[in-house]
Amino acid sequence: MREEIIQEYVNAYNNKDVDKMIENLADDVLFENISNHEVTLSIRGKDAFREQAIAALSYFSTRKQTILRTQHKGNTVEIYIDYEAIAAIDFPNGIKKGDEVKIMGRSIFEFARSGKIIKLTDIS
């Protein structure tokens, strides 16, 4: 069941379907993005996550996450992903509009007893 929820989330992410992305998030979900061992974004709450996800739609003209491997640990599921995208804007880190972005990363989904995602951490 958890793997199905995660696959639905990834599919929604790839299709830029924010409403479907947040469908299985708890109301008080915590989202964190970690890049180079530093927290670059921390958001609490389904509404705040939705706002950020909508804003992020404009960052890339195309984007795709592919799940390479899944690992279960207690109430968490960690997925290893291959990420490919085309930048739609210039980024402060030097990535320019039109550049191809390829990243290997992972996402950790923590589930509540209700089956909802209570924490999502993206690591690259």
| Secondary-structure element series | HHEEHEEEE
* Alpha-beta content class: alpha+beta
Task: List the strand order in the largest sheet.
Answer: 2-1-6-5-4-3
Radius of gyration over C-alpha positions, nearest whole angstrom? 14 Å
* Structural shape: globular
Percent helix, as a range, is 10-25%
Helix count, per DSSP? 3
Poorly predicted ranges: none
Distance between the termini: 26 Å
Biggest sheet overview: 6 strands, mixed
User: How much of the sequence is in beta strands?
Assistant: over 45%
> Mean pLDDT, as a whole number?
96
**Could you tell me the number of beta strands?**
6
List keywords for this structure.
single chain, 124 residues, alpha+beta, 3 helices, 6 strands, 23% helix
Written description of the protein model:
The protein is of the alpha+beta class and 124 residues long. It has three helices and six strands. Strands 2-1-6-5-4-3 form a six-stranded mixed beta sheet, with helices on one face. A hairpin with a 2-residue loop joins strand 3 and strand 4 (76-87). The longest helix has 13 residues, at 2-14. The relative contact order is 0.22.
SSE order and pairing:
Blueprint: H1 2-14, H2 18-21, E1 25-35, E2 38-44, H3 46-56, E3 60-73, E4 76-87, E5 100-111, E6 117-123
Parallel strand pairs: 1-6
Antiparallel strand pairs: 1-2, 3-4, 4-5, 5-6
